[in-house]
Amino acid sequence: MIRKNIPNFVTLLNLLSGCISIVFAFNGNSVLAAWLIGIAAVFDFLDGMLARLLNARSPLGLHLDSLSDVISFGVAPGVIVFQLMQNSEHLPFFFWDGVNFASFAAFLIPVFSALRLAKFNIDDRQTDSFIGLPTPANALFFASMPLVNFQAENLNHHWINMILQNYHSLLIITVFFSLLLVSPIPLMGFKFKSYKFSENKLKFFFLVFTAGLILLLKFYALPVIIIAYILVSVPGKKEKQKVA
Asked: DSSP readout, the chain?
């Protein structure tokens, strides 16, 4: 019984990381909040791997994973973007009862993430790849924003700060990626049925590309990797899917 619940325990660590990320984001520490989303993504990867290794897949685990993902990869990045919008330039004056509703656009991220996860749970086509942008990839893209901001400030790359500190650019990016979550675009999954190079060329090349880009660009690499993931996946063949 304990063995069967090990993946569920790891899933709950994903959820806990997301909750703590939200607290730090609301307290103004978006960089630490971003790191916690990254930690949640590691737990999200591990719970699926452990479920397969221990033969411990269950309907409970599937739904618990989705509920955790809504928090860690929906609400948490939404709060980070909300804070970025609150502190951005050109924020529209749309106050009511002391609250600026313009920043609430950031919560399109959890709304569309929940819709994407609900669709995933009833879609039997998603076993080896995805239809629409996976919520962890979307969350990592938005979590990278405070990290990129931090690196840009240190390197005096002010044009990057100008983009990430402008309400209108944040709004456009938020709407675009929210729509990608529920789009019909087929995207590559990283579940390996085997580790033969001939069967996984694109995945191996992409992992090497990712590692090299991180070493070269550091935090700048994170949004580039997510965009590259979308671009290399789209021309690929449609596979049958279902990755947690």
From this structure: -HHHHHHHHHHHHHHHHHHHHHHHHHTT-HHHHHHHHHHHHHHHHHHHHHHHHTT---HHHHHHHHHHHHIIIIIHHHHHHHHHHHT-BT----EETTEEGGGGGGGHHHHHHHHHHHHHHT-TTBSSSEES--HHHHHHHHHHHHHHHHHHHHHT-HHHHHHHTBHHHHHHHHHHHHHHHTS--EE-----S---GGGSHHHHHHHHHHHHHHHHHGGGHHHHHHHHHHHHHTTSPP--B---
